[in-house]
Amino acid sequence: MRVTLADTLPAATPCDLLALPVSEPGTLGGDAAAVDKQLGGRLANAARADGFTGKRGRTLLLHTLDAPFRRTLLVGTGNGRDAEAVRRFAAVAARQAGGVQAGRLAIAVPAGEPAGAAGSPAERVRAAAEGAGLAGYRFDKYRTAEDKGPDDAVLLAQGDRKALEGAVGLAGIAVAATCRARDLVNEPANVITPAALADLARDIAKRDGLGCRVIELDEARKMGMGLFAAVAAGSDQPPKFIVLDYKPASGARDSRTVALCGKGITFDTGGYSIKTASGMATMKTDMAGAAAVLGAMGALKELAVPVRVLGIAVATENMISGRATRPGDIVRGLGGKTVEINNTDAEGRLVLGDAVAYAVREGVSEIIDLATLTGACVVALGDHTAGLMANDQPLADRLLAAATASGEQLWQLPMYEEYAEAMRGEFTDLKNSAGRAAGAERGASFIAAFAGTTPWAHLDIAGPAFAEDRKGPPYVALGGTGYGVRTLLRYLEAAGR
């Protein structure tokens, strides 16, 4: 769906569907009041008759064939006045437009009254463009042709045109990157293999002028990546340790290097600590962290990110065979630490241990890893919120601010010393599992051991990386969500400020 900007008044905008925001208690104001006046009070009468109160996500559709707009849609925004409320409003409008086969959608971006309550005009326009664009996503390459959503969405907003057009451009970059990550997660494991992720990385590097290094298994073993090799041992698919290197244009003021590390288990059986049939059903999605990293890396050049970014995607399957790692095996990681693998289904922290150690060896300034790591985080925070754990509070605070700006839900969990203590092995430096209690925090503490003193943050995205129902935000499609891409891009955009 193409998203553009216009400064025409809603009442004078030709379209198939005109979407207007209405806050609680449902009194029509602003653009909705102006359109209602043009329609002789029909909107207000219909709202009263239908009991429309402006509750968030509720809608009221009215045919208005005698106006420039063929249908008018009232969308409840509740009491929300921030950018996320605008994002959700635009997403609801885009979904409804698809449902009535409206080819051209017009969205009246709310003015943010009282002044400043919803951020700057550019921030509201960016949120609306993201909401509409993300809600228009479809993964339908394996299905016969179906009715699709609107072809065009025009955002109606007043303000500085250059700033607003820039906001639409930024939103378009973020939407495209998120949808690329969604596609990767939605593809089956017989298509998205480690080799396929490596090929994608090479394509990104060639297109955008990034450095690219793909470390094969034999080289990884020689380098000392025993944890990565142990997870890969049972698979016939060759694993790939993928490194993309983005460098900003000369003259960038910020000399930091940010490492993004993504767990890329392209299929996870659990190994000999095998999953149940139901637990294995969605395990093609266990590479969502790597998908987020690759999605973000493909947007850095367009965004002119001012810091160097090292994108590491650790791609392998976790399978069972005569070569597979056994519970109780002891291996040594790139950082030199020995690990007893007492649970082969706790494999994500193993590959990330080597990824984080690689980033430290490269001398990066800070590390952010993303992984569908633990069911414990889903139990703690639910399906729509990721957990954040970090060894550096300023880094955590910046990530929380970026997540708030993007609308992605992120909640910080503690990193007490007791969690790290629980991960110490009886005969080794570490063990990779210490039971169910505080599973998310203990898993993160294992990874933290490889970061040392380098500022590090871990995003456990096991809940929000994949949507099995439509109970989440309206711009989140079923299947892969691309969670984390927009937070990373917001974080990196702000890096030079």
Write the layout of secondary structure elements.
Blueprint: E1 2-6, E2 17-23, H1 30-38, H2 42-50, E3 59-63, E4 71-78, H3 83-99, E5 104-108, H4 121-135, E6 152-156, H5 161-186, H6 194-208, E7 211-215, H7 217-223, H8 226-232, E8 240-246, E9 257-268, H9 277-280, H10 288-297, H11 300-303, E10 308-318, E11 329-332, E12 338-341, H12 348-361, E13 366-371, H13 375-381, E14 386-390, H14 393-406, E15 410-412, H15 417-422, E16 430-431, H16 439-451, E17 456-460, E18 466-467, E19 479-480, H17 485-493
Helix pairs in contact: 3-4, 4-5, 5-10, 8-12, 10-17, 12-16, 14-17
As a whole number of angstroms, the C-alpha radius of gyration is: 24 Å
Which structural class should the secondary elements be placed in? alpha/beta
**Strand order of the biggest β-sheet:** 7-8-10-9-13-17-14-15
Shape label = elongated
Largest sheet: 8 strands, mixed
> What's the average pLDDT?
95
Low-confidence stretches: none
Write down how many β-strands occur, each being a DSSP E stretch of 2 or more residues: 19
So how many helices?
17
Proportion of helical residues: 25-40%
User: Which band does the percent of strand residues land in?
Assistant: 15-25%
Termini Cα gap = 32 Å
